[in-house]
Amino acid sequence: MLEDDSAQYEAKMRKVIYAINVTLDGCLDHTSMVPTDALLDYSMHLLQEADLLVYGRKTYELMVPYWPDIAKQRTDTKGDIEFADAFCSLNKLVFSRSLESAEGNTRIVRTNLQAEILKLKQEHGKNILVGGVDIPSQLIELGLVDEFRFVVHPIIAGQGRRLLEGISLQEKLKLRLVESKIFSSGAVALRYLKQ
């Protein structure tokens, strides 16, 4: 394949975007963070740019049945309901050896993570949005994450899971900041691309 053909092929591939909320001390425990309407709106835009959500079992079980229940009950805030509707409308893929069943438009995958993500990147569609800690850490180690979206909250949690625990990168990953946004809550959204 010629160099121009290779660049054109890569431009057509779906992007894998890792999006996560993080505290100032690097903890990825979302329970210590309070979503505001502005943060929900930011997350809504991420969902609208994707057509597939990828999780491990733990993250999936945090998201489901929580968001589907909000979509059904319709008693929460307008922002929560809109996010829940958007979340429920997207296809989901859960990598798990222990999850026995999943709701609605969710597929459980027990095969090779790398092979499955490479196959999905080549399929036609919007972005692939990845959340959680374990699966994204493995995808980062494999070099399969194209874009990183961190929302840094003005909180020092003191404890919680951190990205890449137990993972050994072969080489330092260099990122380029392409966008940032400061919220009135003091949270900062940062968008990075791989260099």
Distance between the termini: 22 Å
Q: What order do the SSEs take from the amino end to the carboxyl end, as H and E?
A: HEHEHHHEEHEHEEE
Output the number of helix runs.
7
The neighbouring-strand order within the major sheet is 4-3-2-5-1-6-8-7
CATH architecture: 3-Layer(aba) Sandwich
- Secondary structure tally: strands: 8
- CATH level-1 class: Alpha Beta
**So what's the overall shape?**
globular
The CATH superfamily label reads Dihydrofolate Reductase, subunit A
Characterization of this structure:
It is a single chain. This protein has an eight-stranded mixed β-sheet with strand order 4-3-2-5-1-6-8-7. It has a single domain, classed as 3-Layer(aba) Sandwich (Dihydrofolate Reductase, subunit A). Strand 7 (175-182) and strand 8 (188-194) form a beta hairpin. Helix 2 (37-48) runs parallel beside helix 5 (78-89) and helix 4 (66-73) packs across helix 5. The protein has helices spanning 3-12, 37-48, 57-63, 66-73, 78-89, 113-122, 134-141; strands at 16-23, 50-56, 91-95, 106-109, 127-130, 147-153, 175-182, 188-194. The longest helix is centred in the first third of the chain and has 12 residues, at 37-48. The chain contains seven helices and eight strands; from the N terminus they run H-E-H-E-H-H-H-E-E-H-E-H-E-E-E. The chain is globular and about 45 Å long. 25% of the residues are buried. It has 195 residues and is α/β, with parallel strands linked by helices.
